[in-house]
Design brief:
Radius of gyration of chain B: 18 Å
Strand content of chain B: 15-25%
Number of strands of chain A: 2
Structural class of chain A: alpha+beta
Shape of chain A: elongated
Oligomer: heterodimer
Number of helices of chain A: 3
Strand order of the largest sheet of chain B: 3-4-2-5-1-6-7-8
Largest interface: A-B, 15 and 16 residues
Order of helices and strands of chain B: EHEHHHEEHEHEHHEHHEHHHH
Shape of chain B: globular
Strand content of chain A: 15-25%
Order of helices and strands of chain A: HHHEE
Low-confidence stretches of chain A: none
Structural class of chain B: alpha/beta
Radius of gyration of chain A: 21 Å
Low-confidence stretches of chain B: none
Number of strands of chain B: 8
């Protein structure tokens, strides 16, 4: 048995606290049915598909949740279409 | 007019039934008239913890269905004359717990008792929502552990949305009761501390109940922990919580690690 482990073992309670803070910040927002990030994602995709036909397989949505800020990354590949070139 | 309290948690096994029995007996010892109501239809246990399992004739569902009068279903405690139990049904379907029926029973109980303490089942379905529906006060029982804290957070959300008070634009008075707290583990950083849980859940603290053998012993005997050994640390913590409920300003005692140097060294409790 490594006796050093007794002294250097990280405190698990602080990990528990941080994990809970991040998780609950998200759950409190989504349980009420107002998950802002999910709404943004759906509306952004709706706006894009109004103007260009988007292939569902070419849409990448990545969401990262942090304690203070969440980031939403939307990567949509818009097909090159000669009929829809800028006027 | 009495007050209705719901003892709730979301997660099972955190100490709701123990707390209901302990606070009920603690308040009754202060000359308050108390009824404890079991809402766990199908898995009733408050009768067992109260030591009244052999005296159950009628239950909450019988009363709601009009098969028995409220007075017939109430069981008077043999030790405390101010304490009564309304048991849950062990065999009937929990869907028989109708909102109208529950309202009628709680209203009638509030007219006759100072405190109506409802022991909620675990979960967030019909049983728990019916138990909290008419509450004036909620006691959220939480263990210093991630899954219990998460479930308590969810229950706090429900208390702010699905109760009669919330629907009227009022607020259910919410209190946190931290149970199974192990001071030694909290001090060495391997258990969430009181302040951690308070900061996360942000509702006022009603009390801290230390992890203790007293609880198992009391349930073995069928005696609320505040009657089994009134001088135990656990009973004292519940008595303090009961005094806070009645509006007394009692400073919170955070249980401390009472082991001395040798106790710590050999991993035993001195007291």
């Amino acid at each position: 048995m490594n006796i050093l482990r007794l002294f250097v073992r990280p405190k698990s309670a602080s990990t528990a606290r941080e994990r809970l803070q991040v998780l609950l910040a998200h759950e409190r927002a989504s349980v009420g049915g107002n998950d802002l990030v999910a709404i943004l994602r759906d509306e952004i995709l709706a706006v894009i598909s109004k103007h260009v036909k988007v292939d569902d397989n070419k849409v990448y949505v990545k969401l990262e949740r942090g304690a203070q800020v969440s980031t939403l990354e939307v990567d949509v590949q818009i097909p090159f279409d000669t009929n829809r070139r800028a006027a | 007019m009495g007050k209705a309290i719901v003892v709730t948690s979301g997660k099972g096994g955190v100490g709701k039934t123990t707390t209901t029995a302990a606070l009920g007996a603690a308040l009754a010892q202060r000359d308050e008239k108390v009824v404890v109501v079991d809402f766990d239809v199908g898995l009733r246990n408050l009768d067992l913890v109260m030591g009244a399992e052999r005296r159950v004739v009628y239950d909450l569902i019988n009363v709601i269905q009009g098969e028995a009068k409220l007075q017939q279903a109430l069981i008077r405690d043999k030790r405390l004359e101010n304490l009564y139990l309304l048991p849950a049904s062990q065999t009937r379907d929990k869907d028989k717990l109708t909102p109208e029926g529950v309202e009628e029973v709680i209203t009638a109980l509030k007219k006759n008792f100072d405190w109506v303490i409802c022991d909620s089942p675990a979960g967030i379905e019909r049983g728990p929502t019916m138990a909290m529906r008419h509450a004036d006060i909620a006691i959220v029982v939480t263990n210093p552990e991630v899954s219990s804290v998460r479930d308590s957070d969810r229950i706090i959300g429900l208390l702010d949305a699905k109760t009669v008070k919330a629907e009227r634009g009022e607020r259910v008075e919410k209190h946190l009761l931290l149970t199974r707290y192990d001071p030694a583990r909290a001090e060495c950083g391997d258990m969430l501390q009181v302040d951690d849980v308070l900061e996360i859940l942000s509702i006022p603290l009603l009390g801290i109940i230390p992890e203790s053998m007293d609880v198992l012993r009391a349930s073995n005997l069928g005696t609320p922990v505040t009657l089994a050994d009134k001088h135990s640390e656990t009973a004292q913590a519940y008595f303090e919580a009961a005094r806070r409920l009645t509006g007394e300003a009692v400073p919170i005692t955070i249980p401390s690690d009472r082991r001395g140097f040798f106790g710590k060294f050999f991993g035993r409790k001195a007291a």
